[in-house]
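Late entry, evening session. Most of the bench is empty. Finally got around to the prediction I had been postponing all week. Sequence below, unchanged from the version circulated by S.P.
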Amino acid sequence: MSDPAAPALKSPPLKVLIVEDDPNVSLGCQQALELEDIPTEAVDSAEKARRLVAEGFPGIVVTDIRLPGMDGMALLADLLATDPDLPVVLMTGHGDVSMAVQAMKLGAHDFIEKPFSPDYLVEVVRRALDKRRLTLEVRDLRARLQNRDSIEARLVGGSPQMARVRRLIGELASSAADILIHGETGSGKELAARCLHDASPRRGGNFVAINCGGLPESLIDSEIFGHEAGAFTGAGKRRVGKVEHASGGTLFLDEIESMPMPVQIKFLRVLQERTLERLGSNTPVHVDCRVIAATKVDLRELADRGQFRADLYYRLNVANLPLPPLRDRREDIPLLFEQFTLQAAARHGRPVPPPDAERMRRLMAYDWPGNVRELHNVADRCVLGIEQGFPPFATAHPAANRPLAQAVEAFERALIADTLRRTDHSLARAAEELQVAKTTLHDKIRKYGLS
């Protein structure tokens, strides 16, 4: 997630929707505003305006009170019911001033009595636009903070690697780009995909996950693309496939490297044209889903060897999200282990294991071939009291196959990172707890890139 304190992308300019059935007044308002570089759009009825304005409308509304059909007062009530913070400016005739005052009490931003000068219109509109801009910026900031907190709670870790993952998710979530996630088994690829979905405008749609290596080849066509009744023996009724079910949401393809070559060809067409044909049908079905694919191998290398379609690889790899293995972010192990043991204790109705220096030493020194998923399992075993005999608590020393200097550095880096986390990055408190000079600790923080 992007840092809320960082400069935001420049937003498009806000516009003014003018609702006026008198074409001369409407044109005059448009010209006065556009001469000041204020974008406008004009309609001649409240009904047309209502169809153009939804919650979060990027602008304001300037409307006459007297309109054919629904009048300006009814439009005001309707708009504010949808978005209470939307500035609505009413244009009134001389006899409508008392009505306009009533409208102000109901939530109108301001009113302008006809006839009015272009300069006065521009002045009122600018104030309303400034208010709207501030409202939308505050909403955006709150949403970004909420997403950041959500992602940080789910993608746990204070390491620079995980900070980068969260930042990338924040930057990519709101885009429509298809994404390729690369990471080892157990590194959290599906969790990252769910975070992308939940932080995106598609969060209200379905998140549909397919493990491409977990479906029999004879059924994969039907599972992914669906089928019509009678398409094959046993197809008694129409079935909507996974891709179609994900329309309006996100389709997650795990182990994409396992997708059979014939299915890759069909899926490439879905990505390019956003249509599919169910088995047994010649009728194209439009689908609108974002695709997130995940792999634990180098797809480019597979494509170079002819084991994966190169055109599909390039189509999927619009944006890339690499996930670090746990052994490359060892400073996150104490925090992850703490979270997993708390969850396991609540789930199994057992007490949380007390702190144990030897246990943590072994956790830090272990290479974690199964990554976060393996650490989760280890935490479960520790809560259940059955961890002995399983890695990293087997008889052999977990770092036996690693050079001593490398094992010592990994442990030292993780220990310093955990101490800094617990002391709110206070150099003095961390040095006191670790029983080292502050200058020594400062040098080690710089050495390990923990500042």
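Two things to note before I forget:
The radius of gyration is 30 Å.
The first strand starts at residue 15 and ends at 19.
Will write this up properly tomorrow.
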